[in-house]
Amino acid sequence: MTSEPNSDSPLELAHVLFTDIVGYSKLLGNQQRELFQRLNGIVCGTRQFQSADAAGKLVRLPTGDGMALAFFTTPDAPVRCACEISRKLQEHPEIRLRMGINSGPVEEVTDVNGRRNVTGAGINLAQRVMDCADAGHILLAKRVADDLAQYSEWQPCLHDLGEVEVKHGVRVALSNFFGDGFGNSKSPDKIIRAKQVRRRRLLLWLSAILLFLVCLGLGSWMWTRRAALTSAYKIGAAGISEKSIAVLPFENLSEDKENAFFAGGVQDEILTDLAKIADLKVISRTSVMKYKTGPERNLREIAKALGVSHVVEGSVQRAGGRIRVSAQLIDARTDAHLWAEHYDRDLTDVFAIQSEVAQQIADQLRSKLSPVERAAIAEQPTTDLEAYVFYTKAKELESASSEDAEAFLNRQVELLEKATQRDPNFALAYCVLAKTHVELSSATADPVLSRKHLDLAKEAADAAVRARPDLGEAHLELARYYYYVGVNTGDLDRVRDELAIARRTLPNDAEAIEIAARIDKRQNRWDESLANFEKACELDPRNGEVANYRRRTLLEMRRYKELEQVLAKDVANGMIDGPWVQFQLARLKLAEGDPVAAQALLAQVPLDFTSYGAMWNTRFNAALYLRDYEAANRVVAAIPAKWADDALGGPSNWAYGQVARARGDTQKALAAFAAARKTLDATWQIRFKDQRYSALGLFAAVDAGLGRKEDAIREARQAVDLLPIAKDSYWGPQFVTTLALVYAWTGEHERALEQLEVVAKIPVGGSESGATYGDLKFNPCWDSLRGDPRFDQIVHSLAPTDGNSK
Q: Quick check: is 235 in a domain?
């Protein structure tokens, strides 16, 4: 508190810098003290502070979550001080400071502790100016900006923001002050909101006048054309194709509820037949299976969520040797029933019913069918009804959820083998069998068993091709097999060849498009990859895995603003929720270079949320970027055993070694790296049997930490040679980045910069952190390169912009 001012005291002109730590009140007491001590050290270390303080021309006032500095020297003193503080804070991202500057009259007083203090309009307005700022901003009142505008040194750094209303209705004209290495170039949120409010008021006023005139002049015309306009709006405004359709799960009306799989089989075959028609957009089975039958099923809302104009629903009733199928086609925009039919026939006619339904729906939608498409719809999958029963039961298990996924997959294999034993020419059953073995290969941790399942997948896919050489599904499964083999060898041309055959007869198959997208990444077709993931999302809009691939691709391509928009849309649509949202946002913030925001997001994720190893890597990186080494070590210690060797890119001792090295504890770092090397020597042949380049990359990084320069460089170069970017543009950049790290740690700085210049110009690829802006800006592993103009230019080239990044 200050004493009562003396009315006889003269007013003086002070140049005031007001500062405030953003988010200070949300911190714990010890965190507040630590941050404030760091800020005090930075402020007191500035030249302007020291010179003014030594001359007795400075009054400093603590304000709880910041401080005010009143300079009685020159008008640019607080500005120069702010620039020094802002530049120094680049090394302390944990301190999110905002600053406001004003020149105005103050009265010097003595407070109850006998210290100098000031009061008056000059300091009050400085606080109001600061209140308009966000973290990183240096805002100036108009008087200060006008004074500085007269000098060429400052004029380029002044950016007018206009007026904004502050406390008590006072309006203040502001300028944003920023330049190379100081300030925040973005407009403050308060300014943006104020402009939006003014714009909305003006638009509302103009809209009211315009609306009145439009209604007056066009009222009668709109009345006569109301029906036509409504129809056009429903089609055009939603951007939904007239020939788009979703075949929803059919209701089982059989007394024996065990026949539910049969209803699913009828629905699936109708969907499959329609999906072969290139003139239609047909939603994939994965997405439609989420909408089971029931009185609460809202067709209009379902169609909107799936992005279609029409839906098919129906029911199946099986009794003895008879089957009754009912189906109807509905325009979901108007709830109009366009077509309906009931079929009451022998069970052996089930395939003919499915073909007739698909043909009728195609005719109702006026779809153009080629002779090949008509033949595909008419063809029966098998002549053996019992084989078909086993097949439909296996297909029904695809949508079952269980913690024991392997048990369900093995049950599928059992049913599909029975189907193919009864009908050795049942090509579709072989296709599903091949896919199931691939999934079992991915599900098992045993490399020998994994390889066995891949071999069985190849046998099943080959059997499907022998039975039906022109079947698109058979070539899709060959493509899937060659993809999972090719990811280790880099040989993906056979995958693309098989996909080209498959897509001739499967124009609506989201899985084929997804595999193409994943190949595109590896073959440096990143734009095509993103376009294919978007197409797959369109055909399978409720598939969370495909949606995640799309988001991940945007992150890897450094298209951060687009990713924010897609993520917000996916959250709104329920495609991602819970801790996954905070995790993906945190990973985005790390890449953008905001580790403080990333750590705040991760604090909202429960520590027992361990269903994804990359979550731990993100936690570790956030702590490391903030140089919170104790927190980084706590993350490593908390990692569950099943993720211990992979979550952080290597053994846990590799992570401990990075922390110790960053802290300057050479002895502890060498011990940790030596332990990591011992673990790798013992396990690499099992863990990296088909990926020798991955083992070499880890060996190189650890050996660099151990000071084994020649070994580290040789191993890193071998990894790059085994999987160069030209061969695999997804994983290849990771090993170039590792080579840069090895060069940086072994004193070969120029060679390190050469490698970083390569990876900075291309998508990040498969590395969890990689050459992102955030990693190069904050990761201690690059400290030896800091201050080099080439390194600074690389970092600057990756800085996110208001639009999309690179």
A: no
For β-strands 251-252 and 171-177, DSSP reports them as unpaired
CB-CB contact of 697 with 688 (8 Å) = no
Same domain, 613 and 755: yes
pLDDT at 402: 54
Q: Is the model's pTM score more than 0.85?
A: no
Q: Domain of residue 128: give its range.
A: 12-187
Same domain for 601 and 529 = no
| C-alpha pair distances (Å), 721 with each of 484, 709, 711, 743 | 22, 18, 15, 16
Look at residue 144 and tell me if it is in a domain: yes
- φ/ψ of residue 176, rounded to 5: -95, 130
Q: Which residue in 784, 780, 738 sits closest to 759, CA to CA?
A: 738
In Å, how far are 527, 613, 645, 650 from 655, measured between CA atoms?
A: 34, 14, 10, 8
Q: Rounded to an integer, what is the distance from CA 541 to the centroid of its chain?
A: 16
The torsion defined by the Cα of 55, 59, 60 and 61, in degrees rounded to 10, comes to 170
Residue 578 scores a pLDDT above 60:
yes
SS (H, E, C) 137-172: CEEEEHHHHHHHCCCCCCHHHEEEEEEEECHHHCEE
Both tokens of 208, joined, read 């009211």
* Cα 89 from Cα 96, distance rounded (Å): 8
Report whether 359 contacts 400 (CB < 8 A). Answer: no
pLDDT tens, residue by residue, 679-736: 888 877 666 666 778 888 899 999 999 999 999 999 999 999 998 999 899 999 999 9
The whole-number average pLDDT for the span 326-343 is: 92
CB 751 within 8 A of CB 714: no
Same-domain pairing of 402 and 324: no
**Average pLDDT of 252-263?**
78
Q: Please give the angle made by the CA atoms of 546, 548 and 553, to the nearest 5 degrees.
A: 100
CA-based max dimension of the chain:
109
Residue showing tokens 């040194």: 153
Strand partners, 162: 174
Strands 97-110 and 138-141 turn out to be: parallel
Name the band, by pLDDT with cuts 50, 70 and 90, for residue 62. Answer: confident
Give the whole-angstrom CA distance, residue 447 versus residue 499: 27
- pLDDT tens-digit profile of 477-534? 999 999 988 876 767 889 999 999 999 999 999 999 999 999 999 999 999 999 999 9
- What is the separation, in whole angstroms, between the first and last Cα of the chain? 52
CATH of the domain at 66: 3.30.70.1230
